Amino acid sequence: MNRTIIVTDSTSDIPPAMAETYGIEVVPLTLMFGEEAFRDNLDMTPEQFYERLPRSSQLPTTSQPSPVEYMNVYQDILERYPGSSILSFHISSGLSGTYQSALLAKSMLEEEGEGITVVDSLSASYGFGFMVVEAARLAAEDKSPEAILEAVESLRQSRKLYFLVDTLEYLQKGGRIGKASAILGTLLNIKPILSIDAEGIIYAVEKVRGRKKAIARMIELFKKDIQGVDKINVAVGHTAEPASGEEFLKELSGHFTLEEKVLTNVGPVVGSHVGNGTLAVFIWPAK
After folding, report:
1. Which keywords accompany this UniProt record (predicted)?
2. pTM, two decimal places
3. CATH number among 3.30.70.260, 3.30.1180.10, 3.40.630.10, 3.30.420.40, domain 160-285
């Protein structure tokens, strides 16, 4: 029987148990500490990464899977499930070359690649991970690829997200801001709130003084974003600090009725750009 197989990359930050439950194929990006290479979430766990990151003198670098790696994944799926379709969802093309690698892999397969659809999520972390999970749920219900893509696009448009960054250090090391700004921000206890725009690019929403005020401001922003909506689904990404995610969920529950709740790690690849203490919050209307 023909079926639809869901593929994604490791920056979707889907909890491993959830990916296994829904049969999602996750292709890892690579993280480099100097000459040491680690497959995201496989050779290095988030716990190991966030313990090591503050001690590293150099910012780790990252690289996307090659087109050949994706081609091999697609070929393996098509051999196991002949005649099936593949929906392959990836981190925003504005943040990584991962989407382009997957597109090239599809083109390399020529006729075999006709049943493969590569999707630019225009998002990052569980900001598209939740869409991948929903796609897998719909695939398990034998929905057509077209119906799955339509449902996922509707979710993408209704999703709201904010990242609370605890320190400006990694934005500075990554060249996002100047060193003087990072030092001043640290002295003033500035906590940047970031989001991702319609083009899939990260931008600064506000800079708030103090973490407690920043969390309160994030909730205010969500209330403004989805006025008139009471019941929501929510996912909180944390940097191997689940207590911080639980705390935010508790705060959020005072303002919304929370249906589906997901706690997940911001994985090493995404974490290399934002650092320890980050909170990434994603909400979308409940059905």
Report:
1. Lipid-binding
2. 0.92
3. 3.30.1180.10
